[in-house]
Write a structure and sequence with these properties.
Distance between the termini: 33 Å
Shape: globular
Structural class: alpha+beta
Strand content: 35-45%
Oligomer: single chain
Number of strands: 7
Largest sheet: 7 strands, antiparallel
Number of helices: 2
Helix content: 10-25%
Strand order of the largest sheet: 1-2-3-5-6-7-4
Order of helices and strands: EHEEHEEEE
């Protein structure tokens, strides 16, 4: 097995994930080691629609969207390992454990999203995830997800 790290841009992401604006929260994959880990990037822009109301006086990226960005990152690791049709495959949360938020994420930040594969059992994928800004942990959680097909 090759230990070469893979990276890819938004065009590859759009081929793998069914998400689209405004909920697509991964801009680029910086590193991907199949069956092991992934490191991705989300550029946080003041133009994001949620900043209008969260919060007008001090825009902060909602924690649930940071978790969603981490789940999409984990999905990219999953979908590079399994064949699927992104128009029919849906990636669902089945659990979030140990979620912690340690730093606010603001417009102008580059959110580095890390997910490492823990296990796959009975259709459930488990990942250890971490979001960082400038090397400082912004959020971390253990995520459990499953892949379902629209026709299931």
């Amino acid at each position: 097995m090759s230990t070469e790290k893979i990276n890819f841009d938004i065009h590859n992401i759009l081929k793998l994930l069914p998400h689209r604006y405004p909920i697509l929260l991964v801009d680029r994959v910086l590193e991907l080691e199949p069956h092991k880990s992934i490191k991705a990037l989300k550029n946080v822009s003041i133009n994001e629609p949620y900043f209008v109301g969260h919060f007008p006086q001090r825009p902060v990226m909602p924690g649930v969207l940071i978790l969603e960005a981490l789940a999409q990152t984990a999905a990219l690791l999953t979908f590079t390992e399994t064949s699927h049709d992104p128009e029919k495959a849906l990636y669902y949360f089945v659990g979030i454990d140990g979620a912690r938020f340690k730093r606010v994420v603001e417009p102008g930040d580059q959110l580095i999203l890390n997910a490492s594969f823990e296990r796959h059992m009975r259709g459930i994928w488990k990942f250890k995830t971490r979001a960082e800004v400038n090397g400082v942990i912004a959020a971390e959680a253990d995520l459990m997800c499953t892949v379902k097909h629209a026709d299931d």
